[in-house]
Amino acid sequence: MSNRILKDAILFLSAFGLFLFFSSNADAIPSFARQTGMGCTSCHTVWPELKPFGRSFKLNGYVFSKSSSYEFLPHITAGAQLSFSQFDKGAPHGYFDSNWATHTLSSGNSVLNAPQILTVYYGGKIIDKLGAFVQYTYEGAENTSALDMTDIRYANNTSLLGENFIYGVTVNNSPTLQDIWNSTPSFSFPYAASDVAPSPAATTMIAGGLDQQVGGLGAYGFWNNLVYGGIALYRTTKNGITWPLGIGNSPDMVVDDVAPYWRFVLQHQWGEHALSAGTYGMIAKIYPEGESSGQTDRFTDAAADAQYQYLAEKHTISVHTTWIHENQERDASFLRGDASSRSDYLDQFMIHGHYYYESGYGTLGGSLGFFSITGSKDTFLYSPEEVDGSRTGRPDSNGFILEADYLPMEQVKLSLQYTIYNKFNGAHSNYDGSGRDASDNNTLYFLVWAMF
Fold first, then answer.
1. What letter does residue 50 receive in the DSSP assignment?
2. Taking the CA atoms of the chain, what radius of gyration do you get in angstroms?
3. pLDDT tens digits for 398-430?
4. Domain 2-451, CATH
5. Cis ω on the peptide bond leading into residue 408 (within 30° of 0)?
């Protein structure tokens, strides 16, 4: 066993050293910074969290530039993640898929992803008031590549009631992706997590359930840096006009007709402080997996969120929180025998605080987050199964996430994260019916994330 552990350590350290070497020698900064001539910290605290200027940059269509109205050379950026995950108790043999990028180490409770992801994206101004963020990603754990987060938008400014009014339209492939605050799911903490660690069985539809499986057209307006409102309509990318927004993905959440989305925010900025509070939500009728006609399940998500930022010369403090309530009318699943009740619900809550300090040796900081998922009992939706199942038939999970971050340079981030589960899939102990405890899924996660 000692020889195996030594080999595991050598493998990880070798991959880490090579990755960090090439990351450190990347002279170019990401595309938005090249376009504006500004450093990454102009838009971000510790990326991808946005500062007020970053929110304005996105809201105005990614078009702020030091050059003319037409960007002749495309702004292409590459990114890569190398990660190591260790769990308090190993998963059964065969639980992890092994491929050239994913390596199960020691006794099955350690996994090296080299890489976890490789990504290339276009980001910036296309022409005049039109810009885009288009990301294409290879995922090591799944050994697949597909179009990832994509947001193409047109934006303009005018005067309304004597104050500045920003308005625009967006075409994107993930609900909440168009949002400019980090309190909604698409860009909320944790900004990266283990792709191989066991995760709770339940999550609300708006918190990632339809990401890259739908395409939508939305409109928004932001008045006087105070009042924001937006709406969007999404439909499945399985076929039709929205198909290009799902390239490489295989939608298993097929939307009947369209899914409406809404967003409303009040924001106030004063001095070094910024505070926002808002609401968002979505209604989606989804066919059961493998179906594209007949009965559907209806998901109605309504959420509230808030965000606070304090930005001093060298110190940054931020707090984000969101609460999502989802009503589930599972007519189709009930008739198929996949749900024991026609009506279910989920409540999802997250709150996380962050502190960063810009030193002469890079940016240092950390985060503390709490998450909770609760919902109605459904013994068909949440049934006993080793590791991923629920002995109690309940989806309840909660715990904490602790993270330390260090950016030796703007393009490289090192993160050490620990996820602690108090409850997992409905219970604290023997949650799956096979003797596994919630704490067995506690995960230590080390990440090297670089942008070129």
1. B
2. 22
3. 999 999 999 998 889 999 999 999 999 999 999
4. 2.40.160.10
5. no
